[in-house]
Design a protein that fits this description.
With 248 residues, the chain is an alpha/beta fold. 46% of the residues lie in helices and 12% in strands. It is globular and about 55 Å long. The two termini are 23 Å apart.
């Protein structure tokens, strides 16, 4: 389940043959000229509406903390995302205001609130409960598993601990939680086949595709400025691929 950051990247990924897509909070923030965690709820909802309409594929939403401090809080955020066309959304337990992972009881309460809103529509959303430990400097697998179990018990349909790369640890999570597990595909992580063998049900790319695209842009710009050449263009997308994805 790769993560596009705009309409063009969504259509290119759909044309490549993927069966579902997901937004990326960081990739979308960069497209707006912002850093991650700085996108407003209104901006996110508008983005989801555009991406949901751009392809026929189910769209999962990286909805960060589901904006608990905005009017209507978590439940209203989930309702707005459903109305915008999301097929699923996630809620994470990291608070950028404090720079810490939330207390598990508070995080589970918010998962329960999100789950109630996600499951209310006639076509329910898939809710993913996220433990941010391993991308926030907390390398504690036992705590991660305890949190994911709590989020499952609070109503999450799927759980996710981005940052895990050890196949044994991933397998331990899968065995402990008993619900579908999402894994972030990282350069140092297992292959898709290995993740499947461990029982992982869903794999996403987070901001990695957007980061690779922006990295290519910066490297090309530096080559042009510093060397005066345009060899970067040799690895550009083909006109055939663009036509296939974007024409009509």
């Amino acid at each position: 389940m790769p993560n596009p950051w705009d309409i063009g990247s969504a259509r290119l990924l759909a044309a490549a043959g993927f069966e579902a897509l997901a937004t990326t909070s960081a990739g979308f923030a960069w497209a707006l000229g912002k850093l991650d965690q700085q996108v407003t709820r209104d901006e996110l909802v508008a983005h989801v509406r555009e991406l949901a309409a751009a392809t026929s594929l189910p769209l999962n939403v990286d909805s960060e903390r589901c904006y608990p401090d905005d009017p209507g809080g978590v439940a209203e955020t989930v309702r707005l995302l459903a109305e915008a066309g999301a097929a699923g959304c996630s809620i994470e337990d990291y608070d950028p205001a404090t720079g810490r992972v939330d207390d598990v009881s508070l995080a589970a309460e918010r998962v329960a609130e999100a789950a109630e809103a996600a499951h209310a529509p006639a076509d329910p959303l898939v809710l993913t409960g996220r433990c941010e430990n391993h991308i926030r400097g907390v390398d504690d697998l036992d705590d991660t598993i305890s949190r994911l179990v709590a989020y499952r018990d609070a109503g999450a349909d799927c759980v996710y601990a981005p940052g895990l790369t050890d196949l044994g640890q991933i397998r331990a999570v899968v065995e402990a939680v008993g619900v579908p597990v999402n894994v972030l595909a990282l350069p140092a992580g297992p292959s898709l086949a290995e993740l499947e063998s461990a029982g992982v049900r869903r794999v996403s790319t987070g901001s990695l595709l957007a980061s690779a695209a922006y990295g290519a842009l910066v490297r090309g710009a530096r080559e042009l400025l510093e060397e005066g050449t345009s060899r970067y263009a040799e690895s550009g997308i083909s006109s055939a691929d663009l036509r296939s994805a974007l024409d009509g």
